[in-house]
Model the fold of this input.
Amino acid sequence: MTTDTGLDEMRSWLLTEHHETVDPARLGHVRAELERVVRDGVPGPVAELGCYRGAMTLWMRAVLDACGDDRAIHVFDSFEGLPDTTEEDEIVMPSGVFACSPDDLLAAFDTWGRRRPEVHPGWFDSTLRDQLPDRIAFGYLDGDLYASTLVSLTECVPRLAPGGALIIDDYTDPAAGPDTIAPFPGVKAACDAYFEGRSPVETLPGDVAYGRLRRERG
Done:
């Protein structure tokens, strides 16, 4: 499906320079979904909610480029780090963790000579409703916490094109993987709340927790 165009080199670089936010399975799942989206002609841009320093954003751009697909990537992040946790998160994280700047994100794109994404700074509840494209083909949701994940689903799911997909970072279903540690349990709690019960998100295999939601055609 793809012409390599440096994907192996970039993969190695990401796993070295951004090992705290990407891993082989994550990169593989995202690549497979994006290739499928392109192959099936699913319309719409790509969105990433919670981009930090842009490792996954850069990978998605490289995969799309290798597919000969020039669709835009929209990234949303507060760039102020995580907000306060709530009781649904079952954990306490200091606010401001994972803070960075848009320049940190864009630097890697310039280094690799890749097309820059459309950057939307601000908290999700202030940006997504008006700035998220009306239709998206693929979304990578990495909000970490309950409230961030819930607003991400609220805005992304209705805009997901038929055949499109979301990959949800840090999604852990104890029933599907009882040995998997849930570092951010608020993510699944938000999925259950949004879908009013057991969520239809599929747990993806790998050492780190994440899940996938596809919208069927028809």
